[in-house]
């Protein structure tokens, strides 16, 4: 796992010292080595920070040149099938045209990747790779720069222009350090952020910089550079195409046990490949189905106890550490846990903008950072159980959305009813329902039931199922409310989901957006901030393809998701240790904002400050803050989104001064 930054220019290429300065902004991604390579005559400069995981010797240093001398690469990630690719290349070494490309200098996956590109070509290599990666490849012969990103989007890669210079890198903070970079905020990206608590799609928070989307390849030559126009990336792998093909060609099994056998083998193979490392390795263990399955597979293949890590909270409503502890004890892992007191967790908050190079407001970022810090004290690589919910239908919101859509369909006067429900003050609804007590259905007996009723009223008038899902579960502020008119959001069009049922639609929606733009961003930045490599076996191509082709009755039974994944885990762990409601991986932001974080929050959203800065309308934010403090409403996610933007913006102003 590493970090890279580079520049391509027809004139005024950044100096080596400029490149080193930019690379040092992402030193956390690669603390083991720094190297810069420049070719002024070609106008290309590459800088690399290395976290040595495979081949710790100098033979794995980057930027790396191919054996034939034609290609230079700066690479971030891991190629899990690189040993198999080496064997394939060596079998063809007798051919005269292949032999010059196989002068192995070490055993790094970077060297294997370069040899594949030299022999097979870049398009065929991308189709053959199994791994997580983002890389910049310079073709010295054709004078073409190519940028590529892995199919699911595990590793980040930004690109854009700084004046006439084309720049690219693993994080925005590296690009900001290059000469001529314009840190102008993109209002459309800000609209994405206030609406979804993350910047979505190909946008970045800066107007002149984009993110390379998962499974994409971008090539830039001198002609494009002269026009200051970036060609559109090509897609070499598409999750949407994979899902649609899987639905059209579903798998069949002789019986349920056969299906369990196949998935167990696929996950086991993925785990085995991802356990390859020349450094200490462990795993995050929450005690849930996904992480427990990964750890069980690891322990089955390990010659000694696997090191596992979990975070707990003093608040029992958030604490899953006893479950993780029980799973670890059953599997025989070397378990490490930390029970986090509120003061420790809150101390993370001011550091968040430095960890996340653009605004990011998923509150589970806090425990993710804490567990990454703890793991890094013991290992350099940690496997994770992420992506099980998106692939095997695990989120409870999927089933709630289906219920709300059925309610909408069964309500003939839904517009009238929705208007009446929304007209009732939420605070009065909360008071009324609390007074009615046991008469009210259990699903509404939450601390603030009026919020749920208000959301239900919105569901009654949703124009489509996809709109209902996005509005109720994936959106916070209406952008026009806090930004004014004119900004647009970057979600895929509904046509992407044509022909899918409701559950398939939600899983694909999350796989295209929530997974790469939230979950994978959260894990990558939190882990890389402490120089920890994370790997996600459930995103192995064979597992993803299997999940796409798996009929829904293997994912959902008796109203519960992840049926087949549960059955795989049941072969290793008794059901009593994992078969329970999911708590999630969050932090008590609502209480913190009313208590220890109140002063911090009020300084960031003070109305005069918001008016002076000119991007966010203070009136709706102030109203939400007042209602939240009174306890009438729980606006924690809306407020956290605004606060994370304000904290990020303040940190950018400070770094620029």
Helicity range: 40-55%
Total of helices: 29
Rg from Cα: 25 Å
The major pleated sheet works out as:
6 strands, antiparallel
The dominant shape is: globular
Overall number of strands: 17
- N→C terminal distance: 31 Å
Mean of residue pLDDT values: 91
Strand content: 5-15%
Structural class: alpha+beta
The largest beta-sheet arranges its strands as 2-3-1-9-8-10
User: What low-confidence regions span 5 or more consecutive residues with pLDDT below 50?
Assistant: none
Describe the structure.
The strands form three sheets. A six-stranded antiparallel sheet has the order 2-3-1-9-8-10. Helix 2 crosses helix 3, helix 14 (365-376) crosses helix 22 and helix 17 (414-423) runs antiparallel to helix 19 (449-460). The chain is 45% helix and 14% strand. The chain is α+β, with helices and mostly antiparallel strands and 657 residues long. The protein is globular, with a radius of gyration of 25 Å. The relative contact order is 0.12.
Q: What does this entry show, briefly?
A:
The protein has 657 residues and is of the alpha+beta class. Helices cover 45% and strands 14% of the residues.
Summarize the helices and strands and which ones pair or pack.
Elements: E1 2-8, H1 16-24, E2 33-39, E3 44-50, E4 64-65, E5 71-79, H2 82-91, H3 109-120, H4 122-128, E6 131-139, E7 144-149, E8 158-162, E9 165-169, H5 172-176, H6 187-196, E10 209-211, E11 216-220, H7 222-226, E12 234-235, H8 239-248, H9 256-274, E13 281-284, H10 289-301, E14 307-313, H11 321-331, E15 334-340, H12 342-347, H13 352-355, H14 365-376, E16 381-383, H15 388-392, H16 396-409, H17 414-423, H18 426-436, H19 449-460, H20 465-473, H21 479-483, H22 502-528, E17 533-535, H23 541-549, H24 563-570, H25 589-594, H26 598-604, H27 607-613, H28 618-630, H29 636-656
Parallel strand pairs: 13-14, 13-16, 14-15, 16-17
Antiparallel strand pairs: 1-3, 1-9, 2-3, 4-5, 5-6, 6-7, 7-11, 8-9, 8-10, 11-12
């Amino acid at each position: 796992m590493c970090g890279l930054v580079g520049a391509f220019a027809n004139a005024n290429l950044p100096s080596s010292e400029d490149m080193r300065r930019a690379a040092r902004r992402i030193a956390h991604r690669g603390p083991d080595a720094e190297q810069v390579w420049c070719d002024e005559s070609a106008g290309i400069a590459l800088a690399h920070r290395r976290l040595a995981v495979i081949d710790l010797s100098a033979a794995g240093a980057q930027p790396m040149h191919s054996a034939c001398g034609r290609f230079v690469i700066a690479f971030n990630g891991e190629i899990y099938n690189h040993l198999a690719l080496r064997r394939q290349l060596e079998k063809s070494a007798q051919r005269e045209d292949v032999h010059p490309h196989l002068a192995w200098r070490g055993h790094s996956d970077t060297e294997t990747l370069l040899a594949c590109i030299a022999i097979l070509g870049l398009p065929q290599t991308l189709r053959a790779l199994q791994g997580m990666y983002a890389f910049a490849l310079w073709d010295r012969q054709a004078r073409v720069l190519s940028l590529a990103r892995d199919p699911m989007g595990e590793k980040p890669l930004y690109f854009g222009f700084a004046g006439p210079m084309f720049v690219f890198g693993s994080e925005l903070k590296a690009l900001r350090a290059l000469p001529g970079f314009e840190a102008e905020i993109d209002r459309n990206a800000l609209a994405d952020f206030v609406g979804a608590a993350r910047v979505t799609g190909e946008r970045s928070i800066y107007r002149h910089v984009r993110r390379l989307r998962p499974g994409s390849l971008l090539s830039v030559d001198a002609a494009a550079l002269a026009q200051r126009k970036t060609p559109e990336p090509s897609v070499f792998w598409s999750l949407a195409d994979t899902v649609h093909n899987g639905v059209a060609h579903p798998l069949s099994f002789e019986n349920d046990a056969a299906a369990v056998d196949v998935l167990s083998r696929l996950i086991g193979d993925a785990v085995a490949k991802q356990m390859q490392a020349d450094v200490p390795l462990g795993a995050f263990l929450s005690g849930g189905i996904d992480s427990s399955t990964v750890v069980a597979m690891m322990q089955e293949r390990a010659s000694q106890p696997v090191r596992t890590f979990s975070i707990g909270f003093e608040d029992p409503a958030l604490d899953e550490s006893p479950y993780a502890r029980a799973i670890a004890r059953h599997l025989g892992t070397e378990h490490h846990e930390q029970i986090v007191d509120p003061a420790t967790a809150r101390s993370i908050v001011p550091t968040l903008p430095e960890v996340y190079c653009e605004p990011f407001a998923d509150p589970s970022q806090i425990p993710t950072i804490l567990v990454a810090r703890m793991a890094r004290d013991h290992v350099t690589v940690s496997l994770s159980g992420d992506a099980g919910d998106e692939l095997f239908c695990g989120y409870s919101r999927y089933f709630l959305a289906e219920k709300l859509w059925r309610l909408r369909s069964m309500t003939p006067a839904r517009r009238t009813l929705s208007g009446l429900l929304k007209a009732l003050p939420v605070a009065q609804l909360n008071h009324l329902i609390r007074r009615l007590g046991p008469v009210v259905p259990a699903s509404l007996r939450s601390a603030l039931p009026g919020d749920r009723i208000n959301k239900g009223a919105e569901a009654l008038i949703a124009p489509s199922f996809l709109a209902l899902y996005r509005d109720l579960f994936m959106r916070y502020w209406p952008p026009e409310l806090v930004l004014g008119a004119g900004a647009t959001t970057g979600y895929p069009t509904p046509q992407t989901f044509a022909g899918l049922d409701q559950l398939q639609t939600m899983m694909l929606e999350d796989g295209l957006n929530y997974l790469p733009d939230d979950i994978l961003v959260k894990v990558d930045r939190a882990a890389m901030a402490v120089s920890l490599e994370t790997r996600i076996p459930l995103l192995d191509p064979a597992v993803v393809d299997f999940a796409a082709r798996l009929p829904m009755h293997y994912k959902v039974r008796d109203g519960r998701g992840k049926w087949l994944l549960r059955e795989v885990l049941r072969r290793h762990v008794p059901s009593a240790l994992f078969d329970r409601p999911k708590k999630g991986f969050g932090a008590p932001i609502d209480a913190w904002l009313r208590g220890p974080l109140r002063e911090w929050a009020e300084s960031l959203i003070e109305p005069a400050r918001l008016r002076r800065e000119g991007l966010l309308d203070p009136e709706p934010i102030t109203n939400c803050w007042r209602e939240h403090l009174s306890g009438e409403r729980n606006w924690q996610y809306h407020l956290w989104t605004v606060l994370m933007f304000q904290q990020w913006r303040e940190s950018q102003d400070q770094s620029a001064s």
